[in-house]
Amino acid sequence: MINITLLGSTGSIGTSTLDVIRRHPDRFRLFALAANSSIDSIHAQVLEFRPVYAVLVDATAAATLRSRLASSGVETEVLDGEAALETVVSHPDVDAVMAAIVGAAGLRSAWAAAAAGKRVMLANKESLVVAGKLFMDAVAASGAVLLPVDSEHNAVFQCLPAHGRQGVRRILLTASGGPFRTHAIEQLSDITPEQACAHPNWEMGPKISVDSATMMNKGLEVIEAHWLFDAAPDDIQVVVHPQSIIHSMVEYIDGSVLAQMGNPDMRTPIAYALDWPNRIESGVEPLDLFTIGRLDFEAPDPARFPCLGHAYTAIRSGGTAPAILNAANEVAVQAFLDRRIPFLAIPELIGRCMERVESEQPESIDHLLDVDRRARAESEQIIPELV
Ligand code: NAD
Ligand code: MG
């Protein structure tokens, strides 16, 4: 039995994770579920999975959940506040943690799981973008096992040699190009949040859907790959592949290129991380190559997707530049979703914030979270300049 804490249980990755776990009741046991404030959703999850703990960061929501559970005779203990996330990841009974909170809000708990030496299934890419070196240091110091859940990184992980990096030349990260890959650039000025969130191949939460439309998602993933696989930015090539069937590739010095393929369904990388190195049923439909028919590839267009360039700039400058990039992006995406800024203002805001907030040497997680706060405040100052 593998005892699991699931952070972000009510989100897109969270519910897909529960869907895989539900198929293997004799292999996985849910120790704790955690979310921000979605009461109805977590209430139903607690009734089904009966975890030892349920965490709602929002105290009012947690109080409501507590009173609902009291009348149903369920023994799950309800905790609240951000510190409770760290309690449920580092508990001695926990074997593995699925880190699937969205944004830098997921950093402290993912880092705590790494520092506690757990098996960390990492969906929260922002943790590695903000705290790459410190995060990897924590993994190395504690002996934690870090398993990437992001589909591209999970694919690379499957295609790399089991031991070491001998013979690897480059990582080829595939990208769908999002919903606006073929739109005329002039049409992008009045894109709505609904259009940006309608991804052609994947169903995801709103933040990562907008990131896919701007291709900042791929930028964040280049930084994520840099830390996970110790690869120089120049050795990570983004390849636009509109069908999202090849989830990424590893190129070797002998000319071999290994690809991992499958239907675009996050339950495949989630299942691989849950029971690695074993393969288990995930519920994903088998790949039908005859229906797919063809696979296309193209180079990304830097004029259409300036966010990708911002991300390469941030990782090349190092220090806290990726944390600043990430904070500006989170503010910009939320402002776009709230209809406070237009779609094309997202890369503009990020570029201005990176110019105005100076990069520093990261010292600790607290320091990085302080940089995150300052870059968010600066981004809010920039918003009125862009409308
Ligand atoms: P989502 O918006 O669907 O869900 C987010 C989850 O995080 C919810 O359970 C929410 O309650 C919780 N949450 C949000 N803010 C929180 C806070 N301050 N404290 C505690 N919990 C909080 O997001 P998602 O699409 O599932 O993405 C989750 C993470 O996985 C992101 O980092 C994303 O980049 C990554 N990811 C997602 C996909 C995908 O297909 N959805 C693919 C690859 C990577
Ligand atoms: Mg991805």
Give your account of this protein's structure:
It is a single chain. 46% of the residues lie in helices and 15% in strands. The protein is built from 16 helices and eleven strands. The strands form two sheets. Strands 4-3-2-1-5-6-7 form a seven-stranded parallel beta sheet, with helices on both faces. β3, α3 (59-70) and β4 (77-80) form a beta-alpha-beta unit. The mean pLDDT is 97. The structure holds nicotinamide-adenine-dinucleotide (NAD) and magnesium ion (MG).
Topology order in helix (H) and strand (E) letters: EHEHEHEHEHEHEHEHHHEEEHHHHHH
| Mean pLDDT over the residues | 97
Number of helices: 16
Give the strand content: 15-25%
User: Helix share of residues?
Assistant: 40-55%
Structure classification: alpha/beta
Q: Please state how the strands of the largest beta sheet are arranged side by side.
A: 4-3-2-1-5-6-7
CA gyration radius, whole angstroms: 20 Å
The unique ligands bound to this protein are: nicotinamide-adenine-dinucleotide, magnesium ion
Shape, per Cα inertia axes: globular
> Describe the biggest sheet?
7 strands, parallel
Low-confidence spans: pLDDT under 50, at least 5 residues? Answer: none
Distance between the termini: 54 Å
Q: Using DSSP, what is the number of strands? A: 11
